[in-house]
Design goal:
The structure is a single chain. By secondary structure, the protein is α/β, with parallel strands linked by helices. It has one domain: TIM Barrel. The protein has a six-stranded parallel beta sheet with strand order 3-4-5-6-7-8. GO terms for molecular function: 5-methyltetrahydropteroyltriglutamate-homocysteine S-methyltransferase activity; zinc ion binding.
Length: 391
Amino acid sequence: MAPLFRADQVGSLIRPQNLLEAYGAEDQAALQTTIKEAIATIVKKQLDLSIRPITSGEYERTAFYKGFYEQLQGIESRTIQVPEDFRPNLPVIDGLLRVGVKQTEASVATGKVEWTRPAYLDAWNMIKAELPEQEWKNCKIALPSPTFNHIWLSNGTAYSTNVYANDRDFFADVAAAYRAEIKVLYDAGLRNIQIDDPQLTYFILDSFKDGIRQENVNPDELLDTYVWVLNEIVRDRPSDLFVGIHLCRGNMPGVNTGFLEGSYEKIAEKLLGGLNFDTFYLEFDDARSGSFEPLRFLPRGKGVTLGLISTKTPDMEDIADIQKRVREAASVIAAAQERSVEEVIEDSLAISPQCGFASAHYGRNVGTEERMWEKLVFVRDAARSIWKDAQ
């Protein structure tokens, strides 16, 4: 199926200074007021510039992965040590140590995991409050992946073994919590949800898989478990709920992600063929992501949003180059599916930035808010140059 938007955006937006200052304040009521005002401003800006889908900029959270696990019953936030409490050879460890992070927080299941209250309904209601109802279909909210804490933490420490006997038992309850969250958002009018799972790209690295083996875990079986739980969270979803999954290499400020260079080749068949999502948001903005060849594993009926515009640099892209690269990607898919390039472009592809502009609240790799908007307008204009139905 064709992606909902030919020009998409996949994550957070640069926070205004007053919001950054409010995050550190003790006055939670004042923080919520600042968040609401910031979201209202950012929604209006997206409307004015015809940027779609409309998002909250993730202003309601301080990092892309925050906000969900923290709301679940049975979950506790714990301080963990870097690198002692992490999996061996976890790709982000060197980067965290390089910027001086020796401790961080993780959400650990100390009891039975249950959904008791919504995590992102307030943010969705803040978006809706600034829009006529006919615009709700043009919005999107991103949720962190259910794999997030589990893939980082040493084997067997993401949950209490007094509560869960194994990963599947743990993830079954996590998936039920996600389905409850998604249902609340759907019932409130949301029709487009993105799952952010940059961690799955760790599996392209032999070093990461070797670290998994050091814990006496089979990395192929672990990836199978992650595919299973991702499918579980969208199981039995309404037919008019569009779901996508974002698989990038990240752009966290100060944390070099060059260690994630490499093609999607090693994971493409299992993920593109095995995940029951409508579209895949994939990073292809520079050489670290490899060629488009892994797209040959895309099944008919699925879409790809090509992350061709970088949020890692303020440098602007060229529309002619974007047009060329879209055709190159379409050629790979067309050959594998025995279809024409034009047909694939029309019913399977869209473009976007490769990641959000501020995966952590302090991020601004493109330099300024002005350059961020220039990048998003560029995505819009590039899409309009390729597709007649682009907004």
